[in-house]
Amino acid sequence: MLDCFHDECGIAGVYGNPEAANHAYLSLYAFQHRGQESAGITACFPGGSFSSHKGRGLVSEVFDQEKLNQLKGTIAIGHNRYSTSGKAILENAQPFDIEYHRGRLSLAHNGNLVNSHLLRRELEAMGAIFRTTNDSEVLLHLIARSRHEDFIETLRSVFMTVRGAYSIVMTDGERLYGIRDPLGIRPLILGELEEGLVLVSESCALDLMGATFIREVNPGELIVIDGKGFQSIPLLPVTERSAFCIFEFVYFARPDSFQFGNYVHNVRKEFGRTLAREAPVDADVVIPVPDSGIVPTLGFSQESGIPFEMGLIRNHYVGRTFIEPKQSIRHFGVKIKLNPVKSLLEGKRVVVIDDSIVRGTTSRKIVKMIRDAGAKEVHMRIAAPPTICPCFYGVDTPTRSELIASNHDLEQICTYITADSLSYLSHEGMFTAAGGDRNTFCSACFDGNYPIPFDSPEAGTT
Amino acid sequence: MLDCFHDECGIAGVYGNPEAANHAYLSLYAFQHRGQESAGITACFPGGSFSSHKGRGLVSEVFDQEKLNQLKGTIAIGHNRYSTSGKAILENAQPFDIEYHRGRLSLAHNGNLVNSHLLRRELEAMGAIFRTTNDSEVLLHLIARSRHEDFIETLRSVFMTVRGAYSIVMTDGERLYGIRDPLGIRPLILGELEEGLVLVSESCALDLMGATFIREVNPGELIVIDGKGFQSIPLLPVTERSAFCIFEFVYFARPDSFQFGNYVHNVRKEFGRTLAREAPVDADVVIPVPDSGIVPTLGFSQESGIPFEMGLIRNHYVGRTFIEPKQSIRHFGVKIKLNPVKSLLEGKRVVVIDDSIVRGTTSRKIVKMIRDAGAKEVHMRIAAPPTICPCFYGVDTPTRSELIASNHDLEQICTYITADSLSYLSHEGMFTAAGGDRNTFCSACFDGNYPIPFDSPEAGTT
Amino acid sequence: MLDCFHDECGIAGVYGNPEAANHAYLSLYAFQHRGQESAGITACFPGGSFSSHKGRGLVSEVFDQEKLNQLKGTIAIGHNRYSTSGKAILENAQPFDIEYHRGRLSLAHNGNLVNSHLLRRELEAMGAIFRTTNDSEVLLHLIARSRHEDFIETLRSVFMTVRGAYSIVMTDGERLYGIRDPLGIRPLILGELEEGLVLVSESCALDLMGATFIREVNPGELIVIDGKGFQSIPLLPVTERSAFCIFEFVYFARPDSFQFGNYVHNVRKEFGRTLAREAPVDADVVIPVPDSGIVPTLGFSQESGIPFEMGLIRNHYVGRTFIEPKQSIRHFGVKIKLNPVKSLLEGKRVVVIDDSIVRGTTSRKIVKMIRDAGAKEVHMRIAAPPTICPCFYGVDTPTRSELIASNHDLEQICTYITADSLSYLSHEGMFTAAGGDRNTFCSACFDGNYPIPFDSPEAGTT
Amino acid sequence: MLDCFHDECGIAGVYGNPEAANHAYLSLYAFQHRGQESAGITACFPGGSFSSHKGRGLVSEVFDQEKLNQLKGTIAIGHNRYSTSGKAILENAQPFDIEYHRGRLSLAHNGNLVNSHLLRRELEAMGAIFRTTNDSEVLLHLIARSRHEDFIETLRSVFMTVRGAYSIVMTDGERLYGIRDPLGIRPLILGELEEGLVLVSESCALDLMGATFIREVNPGELIVIDGKGFQSIPLLPVTERSAFCIFEFVYFARPDSFQFGNYVHNVRKEFGRTLAREAPVDADVVIPVPDSGIVPTLGFSQESGIPFEMGLIRNHYVGRTFIEPKQSIRHFGVKIKLNPVKSLLEGKRVVVIDDSIVRGTTSRKIVKMIRDAGAKEVHMRIAAPPTICPCFYGVDTPTRSELIASNHDLEQICTYITADSLSYLSHEGMFTAAGGDRNTFCSACFDGNYPIPFDSPEAGTT
Ligand SMILES: Nc1ncnc2c1ncn2[C@@H]1O[C@H](COP(=O)(O)OP(=O)(O)O)[C@@H](O)[C@H]1O
Ligand SMILES: Nc1ncnc2c1ncn2[C@@H]1O[C@H](COP(=O)(O)OP(=O)(O)O)[C@@H](O)[C@H]1O
Ligand SMILES: Nc1ncnc2c1ncn2[C@@H]1O[C@H](COP(=O)(O)OP(=O)(O)O)[C@@H](O)[C@H]1O
Ligand SMILES: Nc1ncnc2c1ncn2[C@@H]1O[C@H](COP(=O)(O)OP(=O)(O)O)[C@@H](O)[C@H]1O
Ligand code: SF4
Ligand code: SF4
Ligand code: SF4
Ligand code: SF4
Ligand SMILES: [Mg+2]
Ligand SMILES: [Mg+2]
Ligand SMILES: [Mg+2]
Ligand SMILES: [Mg+2]
After folding, report:
1. Residue A460 scores a pLDDT above 50
2. What is the ipTM of this complex?
3. Which residue in A99, A133, A147 has the most chain D C-beta atoms within 10 A of its own C-beta, making it the best mutation to test that interface?
4. Number of domains in chain B
């Protein structure tokens, strides 16, 4: 409803647990925010056949007790998807289950390959058929066509061929595999259950499952899990630089998660502190756009001394469907989600903090809403730099022309959103707060420095 | 899932708007937290026939565009219900539509009548048939049996007969009526749309509809709305005392609502401030049990100077259905909803604030969760006095024996929840913060002072 | 889809069986043809509370295993309804469950009261409230208001007051009651399970349940069933005449049922035989409009010696929903249901037999369909007299102006339906074949002789 | 519910009609009896992209107006499927839509390939991945891998490679293709709409669409339909023999259809006549097991002079779901579908005719049901020879060991089903009645003469 970046997926793999599908379900539930349009789980016993269920909607809508019970086995793979995309002919839902010359394979993928269109055309030329528009199908074709005897070698050659962002969990019905691209763009975390091992996109899933954090999968690393435990295989050559998606810290990840060597909460709060130093403002109160704005706002407040208040209330029942009245209601789009606390705002000079401005329409409505509630001044502070470029690494972003900061300067944006002042976090401030630099993180959507070049104009589409 | 008090209902009436049903829907959506088990709307044109739709589930599940479109008319009544109660024979969903000697009537009711069982037995003795276990049916029978020519006199005599808590919206297909009991136990608010007038349980609905707040309906007052505007009729004799449900301030109402002459946010924050003064504690950080604990925690922090942090994260996707794994996961019940931010809690002396302790099981899990996350000390502070008595005025409460504070002293509760210390807000502190005293508010669940006596042991059941 | 008379209901009562609801379900399933719009079952243990489930659609859609399992008890009442009527405000679904001064009552009703509007107005004047537009609610109010101590006397006085067609099953949670109106217009049959007793609208339900036929309930009789068996109470004064609905033989009842002292199949076949004698025709083949036309056609064939053939095939999957193409397809309405067997019709002189002509539009399409398939001549024979009047005794009929035979003579109808000849069964022929005369049967829809006068123009509406 | 052979599919293709999907829907509806478990339609404009919808259930359940409206285009392909088979991992629903080096392809298939397992293993060895267990996927891989420039040559080489029974409709988004295997095992019919051309499995679909029959597609023929009309291409070499599935005449096809050069009705009636001559019996009445038994029974009656009666009534509402009571009811399984007309059977010597005996359990229940209804003698006559072998050409049959006639002689079967006598139609009688001989028809399920050899034991599985 509100304009924002959307993460594309959350993935989970469970090995060696008698309730594998149930734990995959818990993971998908924990990082439901990573993808809300469809969900799927495939399960099996070692050597047994796959059972699978996928559907559109939230995890809690797609699965019920009966459906979960049918997903028997000690191995399971799960997938949350943001966008089911318009392409309705082909069935893009994951995990993606196939049979091929080695037997069976089930794969779930978070990310985006930048050379998949090229590879797809080559594969088609060699006689491959595609049922979906999904990158994963390219991966599976490559795996199936590899002439290597050894499966690890197969994987190595395939992932040497593809370029892009990917965290992958995969099972051949015997073992569970986890792979992360050489730049580590998307997260992938290894954890331990009382019984069994897990691989998940975000650490909050470990907490819900009652699992212990072991470590993050390394860039370019292959983790192979079987009855004996896990084994680390350096699959792909890595360079000194990594390219962890900094937007995970800015927005995607839950504040209670740990990623890229840091607590999300700590980084996000440091964004707020730095912002307070970089763009101070004389004000009576500082309020977040909840919930993603809360943590940086706390940092801002603590650094600046301006009292923190919950000046906007977020409706608990914000859902995916909502019927608008035909007659327009002022700021309706934002009201469904947020409502101001008038007594906090009346006559006040207000700083309001959000994680990003995408199209600007939401920020504009929020500023007006605060002003209508009686604020004397409204100062917008953004706990990240301006978003100026689309992401081609698995995040659903507006096109460049829709990104307000891509073609407007600070003053113009400030005027558009009708704020009294507007400031963004600096690039340096962001990197430092996140504990790294330009060679640690991908920050392409903030600066256009794409860590992986893409050769075709189609590259960016999913 | 977590143990708590449940409000029973939210009601809305719309008059003179071409999209009356749509606005009723918006109201129900805004105060969905007042009742999540079923929802219903009845609509009509003045003089036209009623159309009605009811169903189980959230407002957004019960209604879709097609169903709303069928509810044509400029008058509408809506109802959110917490409990559909076990009594499946009889159809308790509201609004309640009937035909009788005057024509048609549709009624929605928030509250509970304490003499309804008696009245029902009398009505049955006179030949009445009942299809539901609902208080509202008693009201309708009384209205239908009244011998008064005049409808207002009818209403007066009926509401002189019943005793209890009630806010009611009602239409005879011509006018919209709003009634509040003589003690004003349940809220009811009058507002103005660009086109038409509305009556709603909670003011946040006005904000979503884009309506202006006019005023609260007074205790004992009848509001009659027709094409000429609204008319105030003093229906029932009132005394000096009122009995506004103080639990609205403690928990039910959204912080952005205005009720009983005060902003909920302000009162709730003052609860926190007072608590900080009454029960100070030496600590490093104070955290809320979100979301209801946030506002008092801000007050506590501001008063005490202990830094406020979001040490517990509330999952956005907490729904009504969730599949538990068969193997127990530590604190699972609470984990589904809340997750600690470890980096904030490790090695800290933590104050955690919630609005109430009902059975104690949830608080116990929360304390343990915080301690497991590394807290050195965990001090629980409750922004209200101990809840020791059930409510008979329309709120779904556990029985006295289930209320931990009803039969355990402070120390015992503190031991049970495994906190390092525990304190509640004082009664005086609560009243003062809410801007009144024992004669302004009902506080029966905190002190057993029931403002309306009830004569039968059945009284408290719905 | 095709134009026809619709029966209004089928009812069932089960007593003393551990799977009472399941047997009620079987009954509703067996006479699903009596009402396809909604279905409901109420069940209880003697002295226990009612559980109930109702819904729109076929019995197999409304109930599933889980829902049936919830309907626990050894007593059950079921109801199939044809029309849910447009009146959506009020909830007309049956069985109708109430509480009143004697306790509980659940009632299901097949028929129509001709003085219910009058009674309703009187009841309303005395303070009754109505939630539905249903006759049954009038009955329940009358029962609740009766001043008789004795329940049997209560029933007697109530049913002395109402006039019309009714077969009723009812339980007070202790006993099962069956009542048939003094003219016996609607059927009601008593049967015996291995365990327990049953009352059903149509005997085919006994067969499906594996029950034995005991006898039909008599006109004016009350059957009371309890743990000791059944008891017959002559409730209402009866005259010499009865008024069994002859349309049951013509169309409603399944041919495998036994009603009004005769096998439906035998009567229906005799209709065909008589028709062959009364309206002979020189032809090569005689075909039914399946399925209702099959039995009379067999009679016609056997009497006339003209070979019987299945010249029209009835699609097994005729459902309630069907999406028509926007472009018109010739005879589409009928094609969805029926398709000719060309090889049987080409070049033939064809007699086609149906049970009735209502609006004429269907017969017209059928004649054309047969002719398009190559028939040289098409002779229509109807195994009943012309339907000229609406029914006010519980059958959903078109208004007089829509009944083609009401305002057109034989020749006009024949021309309209484009048949080469058309004949109907004579009134005498029908009575004789059915084993009675004008004093045995109601035949009002064929001759306007209404056995119960009705005093208001509203009488005929439900 | 009753034991029988199940057809596997019905297929339809529409070209050049503005309501192409709607006409495909009508076809699926007309031959719903060919597959009741799932249904799917893919539609497009020439050169446009595919839209597709598939689901489980009857055609009328899978599609509604909204879903059909989304299937825009003048080309459409539809598919009814009997078995969704247990293999839930892979998505077997058709039509099957892919992208490959030539562009897009959508294919629907009726039949079974006997060398698909072999081909599949070869394709896998060459790197193909499979998402389903479906034969169609093999076809699509072969098409995609063909090195022929020309599409027709591609099809020729692919269909020279596969062996088995297949009727196929297919579109590349530009043209519509229809193909029938060289033995013509499965039917495929070409028809003409007022606007456009159609290909359907069964001619009753033409009648419902208002299309004209052009001719059957020939064995080994490829029909290519484009804007200029249709073109016939002899795709595959054919021999003198054909192998039309004789079971279509015995059971599958609707009697109003025309297939393999004959009217189904005529053939089926001749089965009955021949049976009367081959296996005469002294009896009072001959009755069908409706509906499939009706036509042969008419033949039997006409030939033998024994009067035809509808002694068993088939419930119109036989659906796919039904809840059985826990307590057993005598012959329950059959009663749900059939009920005897006692007055017709009492004291009679009855001949009962069905199309086949598969496991024998149903026939046994039917014989008992007739006897329980009072029949003095029950003689079973089957209007086909004994079914002794499974089908490997696209029909879902029990295994050999489940086919009662496969391992019991006539007398044993007669004893098992408790009939007074039992006779089957002779093989010669069947062929003659069907207008051909062993070289015209496949009759493998009756005699084990499989017209296409299969090399692996897996061949027979779907
Ligand atoms: N309590 C929470 N539960 C889930 N996600 C949260 C929570 N708090 C913050 N987030 C983060 O904020 C994002 C969504 O929260 P919010 O800002 O409320 O909505 P919006 O996406 O509309 O900005 C998620 O991507 C998530 O990582
Ligand atoms: N943003 C909000 N939206 C809706 N209700 C809220 C909100 N914040 C606080 N509340 C209040 O808190 C209650 C529910 O919030 P919360 O404490 O998160 O859940 P719980 O009922 O489990 O304690 C509601 O009754 C409501 O009045
Ligand atoms: N086999 C049967 N199952 C159910 N009803 C049947 C059957 N045969 C005849 N009938 C009778 O015919 C009516 C419906 O059959 P049919 O003539 O096929 O449809 P229509 O109502 O469209 O004329 C029912 O009212 C029923 O009593
Ligand atoms: N009127 C009809 N509509 C559809 N199918 C029919 C019809 N009459 C006969 N059939 C044929 O009979 C089969 C199903 O009819 P029936 O014998 O009643 O059920 P069963 O499959 O249980 O034997 C179908 O395969 C169909 O070809
Ligand atoms: S472009 Fe932005 S969103 Fe995409 S991976 Fe890089 S930092 Fe993350
Ligand atoms: S008893 Fe408590 S919850 Fe009930 S009305 Fe009084 S204050 Fe409110
Ligand atoms: S009027 Fe016709 S349908 Fe009605 S009860 Fe009389 S015979 Fe039956
Ligand atoms: S084996 Fe039988 S069912 Fe199969 S194709 Fe041959 S005749 Fe038809
Ligand atoms: Mg946000
Ligand atoms: Mg709370
Ligand atoms: Mg009929
Ligand atoms: Mg059959």
Report:
1. no
2. 0.89
3. A99
4. 2
